[in-house]
Design a protein that fits this description.
Layout lengths: L1 E7 L6 H9 L6 E7 L6 H6 L6 E5 L6 H11 L4 E4 L5 E2 L3 H12 L3 E10 L2 E5 L10 H7 L8 E4 H6 L10 H10 L4 E12 L9 H14 L1 H5 L2 H17 L5 H10 L3 H11 L3 H19 L1
Parallel strand pairs: 1-2, 1-4, 2-3, 6-9
Antiparallel strand pairs: 4-8, 5-9, 6-7, 6-8
Helix pairs in contact: 5-7, 8-10, 10-11, 11-12
Family: Belongs to the glycosyltransferase 2 family.
Organism: Aquibacillus halophilus
Protein name: Glycosyltransferase
């Protein structure tokens, strides 16, 4: 049996679609563990209307956050395997069946897939490249996160041994997968099996939380990061980009980035920020990104 864990908080508009996409899986031997993080809207009432004995509903007495809710769901699970779904996303019907078959064929511990990610009228493929199953996922993940929670399926003992870090303000899935990649066999299934929808109030759009989380990841994996100039440059660039989005001047991080691995673009961004023109830089970059997205439609 596969235990599917869904944390939710005030998702009355999307929770039904999310749960039904799990219930409609071609792989039928599942339990759906919904952890309601003390919602104040009609989330509970909507879930109660779904007449399926495979749904197990739990409500936190206080708001604990998605990571603590997932960890509680892991403790409540009975399945040999665990998968995670988000309360505002949607699975394709064959997701679990394809993933469990691939996990067994590859004799791995965790399998993840691709997804579409939508924000407003824009849509992108994630990850935007094909992860390499023949290379170490530890260094691949440090260079660029390619695993999102709702794309993951793994053996129960993996997530019983290593849980989500409730202290991370963002990138909790990335940090967990970094830890797992050092101890378990991760594999990528090259199929788009999830449709993800980023809400306006989602933690995924919080730039300040991203900066804090990236600095924490840098601290945790300091030795490996500083031993690889490309990884060091990439993470410093990420910190700079999120600082820019939050309205702060990231010139020191752009400087660290181009000093580790020189790229003219990051050097120019550093010069612009040195003139305290970081807000103008952000506005220009945003207009360019929006223009490129419109060209795709």
């Amino acid at each position: 049996m596969i235990s599917v864990i869904i944390p939710t908080y005030n998702r009355e508009k999307t929770i039904k679609r999310s749960i039904e996409s799990v219930l409609n899986q071609t792989y039928r031997n599942i339990e759906v563990i919904v952890i309601d993080d003390c919602s104040k809207d009609n989330t509970q009432a909507i879930i109660s209307e779904l007449d399926d004995k495979r749904i197990l509903y739990f409500k936190n007495k206080e708001n604990l956050g998605a990571c603590a809710s997932r960890n509680y769901g892991i403790e409540m699970s009975q399945g040999e395997y665990i998968a995670f779904q988000d309360s505002d996303d949607e699975w394709l019907p064959e997701k679990l069946e394809l993933q469990i078959n691939y996990l067994k064929e590859e004799n791995c511990d965790v399998v993840f897939c691709s997804m579409t990610r939508s924000f407003s009228e824009n849509q992108e493929l994630y990850p935007p490249y094909k992860p390499d199953n023949d290379k170490s996922y530890y260094k691949q993940l440090l260079l660029e996160n390619c695993i999102s929670t709702q794309t993951v399926l793994g053996k129960r003992n993996v997530f019983k041994t290593m849980k989500f870090d409730t202290g991370m303000p963002r990138f909790q899935d990335w940090e967990l997968m970094l830890r797992l990649s050092r101890h378990y066999n991760l594999r990528f299934l090259d199929r788009v099996l999830v449709n993800s929808y980023i809400q306006e109030n989602s933690i995924s759009v919080n730039s300040d939380a991203a900066v804090i989380a990236l600095k924490e990841i840098y601290s945790i994996y300091l030795e490996t990061i500083q031993s690889d100039r490309d990884i060091n440059a990439q993470i410093n660039k990420k910190i700079a980009e999120y600082m820019l989005a939050s309205g702060n001047n990231p010139k020191s991080y752009y400087k660290k980035s181009f000093q580790e691995s020189f790229k003219m673009k990051n050097f120019l961004f550093y010069l612009i920020c040195s003139l305290n023109l970081h807000k103008q830089l952000y506005n220009t970059k945003s207009k360019y990104i929006n223009y490129k997205l419109r060209q795709k439609h």
